[in-house]
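Per reviewer request, we include the raw input and output of the structure prediction for the construct analysed in the revised manuscript.
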Amino acid sequence: MIFGRSERGKPPVEPVTLKILVAGGFGVGKTTLVGAVSEIRPLRTEEVLTEAGRPVDDTNGVEGKHTTTVAMDFGRITLREDLVLYLFGTPGQERFWFMWDELSEGALGAVVLADTRRLEDCFAAVDYFERRSIPFLVGVNCFEDADRYPAEEVRKALDLDPDVPVLLCDARDRESVKQVLIGVVQHAMAYAAGRRRTVTT
């Protein structure tokens, strides 16, 4: 099937759409992750870093970064004929956090992308999704020059609840990103089922 059209002789299928956010600190790889897995050319709202932004854009640890997302990244994946996943990458800097409420509206779940060299940068995203009861998992983007830590050590460092998945990944690799997205969907489904059981008991 071509997106939006069905095979000849079959009625058109109106796909169910799912929305997943990709959040995390500045320079953690959100734009890269969306681009690695999107079947369309991702919509990006990147601007070049300037001297004016130097006091607020901490590039310590990501000195090679020259652009930053100022609104969002957007990508799309067709999982099945009747199921489409939309990815929204959030801006990482604090001055753009006001956009998160709009982007999170109707989200099935979220990926909080983490960099072990700057782990504290993802605290705000973890706190945001916990406070709003949006199911999320932590994807540890394994940069080549970063120390590797077991998932359980990252969980302890972030003080995560036991049911929040922590996955090691490579935001540049399509298959690795797909496993992270599958993990988010599965976690969101389990989270929703758990809430339904709580309501009925």
